[in-house]
TrEMBL record:
EC number: 6.1.1.1
The protein's name in its UniProt record: Tyrosine--tRNA ligase
Binding positions (ATP): K234
First and last residue of the signal peptide: none
Gene name of the record: tyrS
Residues that bind L-tyrosine: Y33, Y170, Q174
């Protein structure tokens, strides 16, 4: 199967600038670019589809070029945004740029000779360009009436939302990037982006044709959503980051393992390098043995391994499996701590032991009163180190695991970690 058909079967192609793109991708080895603006100090799972798609193209022998938007980040892309952005300070942008660039350089192969990835900052060509030169050489090729028809502009003007001249100009910068990248030494022929980038990408395709007569291509990927069409990539209202200091590998793993059943196949096709055949088998198993959660496990594992490496993925998988099976008492300490990342933690003094189960439970945020604690224990919903603990059976030194920890659980999955000091 050619790479284009594979991308189509995976559902990764939303729009293309020309049907010729298929032949070009199948018959030639091309340089292909995607750009990221340094709007934050880390990329998010929202950027993952672009990154994995680049990796896929690289595996077929194409050369990925990542553009870090040192210049475009100073302006702010209005695409897909309903209101004007606040400008970021230059210090923040250069800090973010360093973070994002170092992240990007981890996901692809930058070493193999032919299809080695490349990372370019678009300040390279903008930093010495003067305003008059820009307006004369670039601006002259753009028709305001065409620009006004782009979705990114129309939606803003239609909503009576303001759109500054600064953001209105963004499209020209991205189009000019495509032109610069089409020249040696890059010789880029294709730009990928999310569906909100369509206007900017087409502006670039048109601009390159106008200035140099060359045909370059653009393609967009669909918006990734949840099954109800709402935004994907938030966990408890927070962004899911690719930086392990902001979202740990375990949290990333948990985010994906909690994917909705209806979406798991789609996410496997989008975000993993598993073959379509393997994915079909996982989808089949999801139907026949949903309780095994194999498809979810594979998705979480593959994404975590892609972003953070296999070792982290294996640890996250072990922790998650032990948590799911209610067997944390058997886990090594680092895995136990990982599995309880999201659980509340309390400390009690060693002298408190032995302690009555109801007294211990009522010290935790798992219950809000002593009577609730008593009821929970009486009804058999209280577990110490994943074993049921009944009324009157005191918690003692003998319950310590790893010398200082006790794992409490209420019901099926509400944990609290106790450190005995
Ligand atoms: N405009 C893109 C980022 C980008 C920047 C420069 C480019 O040349 C291409 C893409 C975004 O906001 O996601």
């Amino acid at each position: 199967m050619g790479v284009f058909s594979e991308l189509q079967e995976r559902g990764v192609i939303y729009q293309v600038s020309s049907p010729e793109l298929e032949r070009a991708l199948d018959d030639e080895k091309l340089s292909i670019y995607v750009g990221f603006d340094p709007t934050a100090d880390s990329l998010t799972v929202g950027n993952l589809l672009q990154i994995v798609t680049m990796r896929r193209l690289q595996l077929y022998g194409h050369r990925p070029v990542f553009v870090a938007g040192g210049a475009t980040g100073m302006i702010g892309d209005p695409s897909g945004r309903s209101s004007e952005r606040n400008l970021l300070s230059e210090d923040v942008i250069s800090y973010n740029l360093a973070c994002v660039s170092s992240q990007l350089s981890r996901y692809l192969d930058f070493e193999s000779s032919d299809s080695s990835a490349l990372l370019v900052n678009n300040s390279t060509w903008f930093k010495d360009m003067g305003l008059l030169e820009f307006l004369r050489d670039v601006g002259k090729s753009f028709s305001v009436s065409t620009m006004l028809q782009r979705d990114s502009v129309r939606s803003r003007l239609g909503d009576q939302q303001s759109l500054s001249f600064t953001e209105f100009s963004y499209m020209l910068l991205q189009a000019y990037d495509f032109y610069q990248l089409s020249l040696p030494p890059y010789e880029v022929r294709v730009q990928f982006g999310g569906s909100d980038q369509w206007g900017n990408i087409v502006a670039g395709v048109d601009y390159v044709r106008r200035v140099s007569g060359k045909t370059v291509f653009g393609a967009t990927t669909p918006l990734v959503t949840k099954s109800d069409g709402t935004k994907f990539g938030k966990s408890a209202g927070n962004a899911v980051w690719l930086d392990p200091k902001k979202t740990t590998p375990y949290e990333l793993y948990q985010f994906f393992i909690r994917s909705e059943d209806e979406m798991v196949g789609t996410y496997l096709r989008y975000f993993t390098l598993l073959s379509l055949e393997e994915i079909r088998e996982l989808e089949e198993e999801l139907k026949t043995h949903p309780e095994r959660r194999s498809a979810h496990g594979a998705l979480a594992f593959e994404v975590t391994a892609f972003v953070h490496g296999r070792e982290e993925a294996i640890k996250a998988q072990r922790a998650s499996t032990l948590l799911y099976q209610g067997r944390l008492d058997e886990a090594p300490k680092d895995i136990l701590m990982l599995a309880l990342t999201e659980a509340p933690k309390i400390e009690i003094a060693k002298e408190t032991l032995a302690i009555d189960p109801v007294d211990l439970l009522s010290k935790t945020p798992l219950v809000s009163s002593k009577s609730e604690a008593a009821r929970t224990v009486r009804q058999g919903g209280f577990y110490v180190n994943d074993r049921k603990r009944s009324e009157g059976e005191a918690v003692t030194d003998a319950d310590l695991i790893h010398d200082e920890l006790i794992v409490l659980r209420r019901g099926k999955k509400d944990y609290c970690l106790v450190r005995v000091i």
